[in-house]
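Repro case for the chain-ordering regression, as requested:
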Amino acid sequence: MARVNRMVTLAARPVGMIKPTDFKVTEAPAPEPAEGEILIALKAISLDPAMRGWVSEGRSYVPPVAIGEVMRAFSAGVVEESRNPDFKPGDAVTGMLGAQAYAIANGRNVMKADLSAGPIERWIGGLGMPGMTAYFGLLEVGQPKEGDTLVVSAASGAVGGIVGQIGKIKGCRVVGIAGGRDKCDYVVRELGFDACVDYKAGNISRQLREACPKGIDVNFENVGGEIMDAVLAQMNTFGRVAVCGLISAYNATEASPGPANFRSILVNRLRVQGLIVTDWVKRWPEGVKDLVAWNKAGKLKFREDVRTGGLDAFATTLPLLYTGGNFGKLVLKV
Amino acid sequence: MARVNRMVTLAARPVGMIKPTDFKVTEAPAPEPAEGEILIALKAISLDPAMRGWVSEGRSYVPPVAIGEVMRAFSAGVVEESRNPDFKPGDAVTGMLGAQAYAIANGRNVMKADLSAGPIERWIGGLGMPGMTAYFGLLEVGQPKEGDTLVVSAASGAVGGIVGQIGKIKGCRVVGIAGGRDKCDYVVRELGFDACVDYKAGNISRQLREACPKGIDVNFENVGGEIMDAVLAQMNTFGRVAVCGLISAYNATEASPGPANFRSILVNRLRVQGLIVTDWVKRWPEGVKDLVAWNKAGKLKFREDVRTGGLDAFATTLPLLYTGGNFGKLVLKV
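-- result from build under test --
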């Protein structure tokens, strides 16, 4: 029985915003698992802001995806064939399995997903990479203390929404930054943030000052650019800035200026620290355990924005992340 | 006997580079020490890059010096009269005693200087604020490990020269950045740095790459601007940037752009942290002890650039710091 694999491959290196022609879907016979391997039928692909960096030339924390290569993606699926005693057909698994219909894995680079704790798309969302990014990034880098004011940009996004809720669990005043009234309402009413700054409503600095009367102790930064600059100017002494993303610059074709308020780092003795979720990969089970427990206790909500259209829709769905077009964790159903 | 105090006071808030007319010397009867106080005849005034910030309006870590007020300065002198049992005439002391001929202190805000370990100007230099900045800034914030590559900007300056020598003591490859051949030669031949990048010779990035073939693990940053940007681009994963000074922007009249390579913080998971020496004020004796011991063991050299001309020369001597006109710790003899 020859299964056909469909793969999203990189057709051209994007210049500026991703275009549909930067990717194409190709077909090939699905690979057969060798001894010790499993064949996974993928069900859901995680669309992440970091993907823009993965298709760019230049030095980064991982090599760029090559032209013609299957697009790198965190994805989830179900074991279809197993030649590995640790897995059986029907097991749900997640991992860096690419944007494709079938993937082979040797078992060491995948994690089993317990579907009783959440549907499969959640295991590439709140219980996957974005959830772990929020959990370890906030707790290990941001180090919020009870009573701190925490500001989270891209607050309605996959990572930001969880960061803010963890901040509330840890006793912080939590202020989000999001684009538009709907997202701000969601962040405050649904996720329980104390306030939300609408960056589309103008005067971010004044809105921020009103929302953070005691200044800002922790900033979980997903956006960069003028939003981060406004935050930097209002940081308190010994504040922490967890730099998780700088999405405002990911599609820029010219060099983006750095933060004009960089001097705040010196004057206020800030600790500004970058983070990549894979740095804590050995501790993921710890994060999953806490997030599942908080979710069951009603303290933590997840929101997935699941898009249909399959692999053919990859190139038209991914740009939503950079235009604010998604609402919650963006997932593409295979 | 009426002693006359001469005081450098702030005459106008500087715009851009400090001008002679921004300060004036005024005279008044010297104050008399009250019970518990001492009268100090100041001998040497420390001229520090931070002074530019102290005379600027705006939020900083200390309030700005007011117009008409005695200029804030770390200075050193000799007790002339004592009404405090812990001090006797002839004791050498240092502290935030201002740019003036006489100062009153209550004993709690001054530190005794042991002149057997170094002349009085050294107690406002290598064994004073700059030395402590280098010691705690590098060891506590930079956290160099044996085998690390450490890059120090303003390497021939009061702080930078000591930072690099401590880096060598801790087993680092130490690369300085300084302006001009003479300073670079001094840094390498006299202070024992492994290499020095001459920022006046152009192509800082290429010079830096040649001097740091294994990339940069720790950056002790005194300058900011394009020099810091070049360093940021070559930082290794999990590197540390101790932000001690951003002197390149101190006299700017327009907002200086932030580092274009800010993204390196994210990609390389850097820890970028600001520092102000007074944060470790309770631990100063620890730093003085180590620096004196290293100096006696021949592992650490100090260099003071002592200027005469007295208080009248304050306003014309201070700008040397911002034009690279000093060579070693800039001190003004009273």
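Ordering looks correct now. The radius of gyration of chain B is 20 Å.
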